[in-house]
Write a structure and sequence with these properties.
Helix content: 25-40%
Shape: elongated
Structural class: alpha/beta
Number of helices: 17
Distance between the termini: 15 Å
Largest sheet: 8 strands, mixed
CATH topology of the largest domain: Rossmann fold
CATH architecture of the largest domain: 3-Layer(aba) Sandwich
Mean pLDDT: 78
Strand order of the largest sheet: 6-7-5-4-1-2-3-8
Radius of gyration: 29 Å
Order of helices and strands: HEHEHHEEHEHEHEHEHHHEHHHEHHH
Number of strands: 10
CATH superfamily of the largest domain: Vaccinia Virus protein VP39
């Protein structure tokens, strides 16, 4: 019986790369021979990566598939903390391009067997000698495994120029290490049937190369390299939305502030109407820490409710300390025009900053929070800029936050297009 792989072998190879990324957290990754960009589509969700590149010789396939690397709607609603740029190049892995020098990780998944042996030598020079990445993952078919495939005569694919045995792959890898200053670990994916593993090894053999020591990456190109410095053609480049963009940071922060301010303001107003006392623990700003704050929440919803209760307790404590005149107003006769027609509640910025971790993380400091909210048309601050003013008479008929679609989108999980099963099981 021929060996069957679950999950499919191409998925196992990609999972191997993803596990490596999770462990080593490279910031710059390039996939050589990226073909239909399948691996790139998976790697873009790993937020430690800041630059993701792909190179392939088949421009027609790239043009057809590279649009699938575009940001999803949720990438705009929930931006990354750090920037991500994705570049897709048309070019040959036997040519040098200075834009790919010094990456943290280079992957070559089932690629080298499509090259002639002369081109494999050029591949080694380009990847290990010129690009000088910190780590390289190379996978290729294991010829020792082929006898287990009864329907395979010769190579596994018509375009393969060779298929190495484990000894041949090891010989090439060790020479690369000797020539360019790397060390290598041998492994693979695709387990053989019981009783065969020791004799035939993995279906796909993998070499994981690590650069030895701290090797200086070229900052200048020699005259011989100059003509090849930009040999690839950039077909696609996209910068993902991130909080490094000040406009995006301000938009996310304002949405978060409006959400929490209205939640807390409504809670306070309702408690004032009903006369109910909130026994929730008071956070540090209101004087004291509660025992329940040390208990881990059972779910994100419970965490949000506990944060709301804690902030509500802080607001109530301020009222009880007779700071109403400064921080909370009702029937705002002397306030700004927008508050004259209804009940106006002022939510102190320090309560929002101190009780809501995301607001704290986005703003960095109370001063930054105030600065980022100033001159924003969606935010109505008090004259001294210390509190956010909410007019609940107006907002009962129109909830800006809910109508914006932001809240609904935040409740939706990531919707990821299923990966095409474009590769054969082997």
């Amino acid at each position: 019986m021929e060996p069957m792989f679950s999950p499919a072998l191409h998925r196992q190879r990609h999972e191997f790369v993803i596990d490596f990324v999770k462990s080593y957290k490279p910031k710059k990754v390039v996939d050589l021979g990226c073909s239909e960009c399948s691996l790139l589509k998976q790697l873009k969700f790993h937020h430690e990566i800041e630059l993701l590149a792909g190179v392939d010789i088949d421009s027609a396939v790239l043009v057809k598939k590279m649009r699938g690397l575009a940001p999803l709607p949720t990438d705009y609603l929930q931006p990354r903390n750090d920037q991500l740029r994705i570049d897709v190049y048309h070019g040959s892995v036997t040519q040098k391009d200075a834009r790919l020098i010094g990456f943290d990780l280079v992957t070559s998944i089932e690629l080298i067997e499509h090259l002639t042996l002369a081109d494999v030598k050029l591949f080694s020079e380009v990847v290990f000698g010129y690009m000088t990445p910190v780590a390289v993952i190379v996978s290729t078919p294991n010829a020792d495994f082929n006898p287990l495939f009864r329907r395979v005569s010769g190579f596994r694919h018509s375009d393969h120029k060779f298929e190495w045995s484990r000894a041949e792959f090891k010989s090439w890898a060790l020479k690369v290490c000797l020539d360019y200053g790397y060390e290598v670990e041998f492994t693979g994916v695709g387990q053989a049937p019981p009783g065969y593993q020791e004799n035939v090894g993995f279906c796909s053999q993998i070499g994981v190369f690590h650069r030895l020591g701290v090797r200086a990456v070229r900052n200048a190109l020699s005259s011989n390299d100059a003509e090849d410095a930009s040999s690839y053609t950039l077909l696609y480049s996209k910068i993902y939305p991130s909080l490094r963009d000040s406009n995006i940071l301000r938009r996310v922060l304002v949405s978060e502030v409006l959400y929490w301010a209205e939640k807390l303001g409504r809670r306070w107003v309702e408690e004032e109407k009903t006369g109910e006392k909130d026994d929730a623990d008071t956070p540090d700003q209101a004087g004291g820490e509660g025992k329940e704050r040390c208990r881990a929440p059972e779910s994100p919803l419970q965490l949000e409710e506990e944060q709301t209760a804690a902030c509500g307790a802080a607001m109530k404590s301020l009222v009880e300390h007779q700071e109403v005149g400064e921080l909370f107003w009702a029937d705002g006769g002397g306030l700004q025009e927008s508050c004259k027609l209804g009940r106006c509640v002022a939510v102190p910025l320090f309560v929002l900053w101190g009780c809501c971790p995301k607001i704290c993380a986005l703003s960095g400091s109370l001063g930054n929070l105030r600065q980022l909210l100033m001159d924003n048309g969606k935010v109505n601050l008090s004259q001294d800029g210390s509190a956010l003013l909410l007019n609940f008479h107006e907002q009962e008929d129109h909830d800006d936050f809910e109508d914006s679609g932001y809240a609904e989108a935040m409740r939706c999980p990531h919707s990821v297009e299923p990966e095409e099963d474009w590769d054969a099981n082997v």
